[in-house]
Amino acid sequence: MPKILIASKNPVKVEATRVAFSKYFEDTDIISISVPSGVPEQPINNETYEGARNRVLRLKERNDGENLNAEYLVGIEGGIVQHFNKWFAFGVICIMNNLGKIGFGTSVHFELPDSVTGELLNGAELGPIMDKMTGQHNTKQKGGAIGYFTKGVIRRQDIYEQGLVSALIPFLNHEFD
Predict the structure, then answer these.
(1) What is the C-alpha separation between 43 and 133, in angstroms, rounded?
(2) Of 27, 62, 135, 174, which sees the most CB atoms within 10 A?
């Protein structure tokens, strides 16, 4: 049973990690630890990758310093990226094993309306913007922006699960050794 540290207290990210790892391991022990990303609250472009990696590196420090003996460390960072003159929201997942091997994965990218993008580029974070749009509280710990824009067909947890499985590819295939 592998012990997995995830750099988040967000129940959506924790559950996505549990589900993704359960596809390959019968039992898992998942411990959530909040660590800073070292990037802005709303990462843009490569800052999203840096944030996910930074979270894993901070978990490694905790894992080593506190003898937590985790086999896998998981960092998930939500951000925005520009492609083809459009802005998209997405998540980056970074996984490191106890030997220092790293794998990256991403969630599906979904287009954001210009009104939302304008606020994001002015320093706002997507979660509070979505709370205001939906009239709900803490949507990022529920269906998220993807849930709102797809009318509930896709949930935030769904896209993180796929990104986590993608990030596990280097650990599942010996061709990456």
Answers:
(1) 20
(2) 62
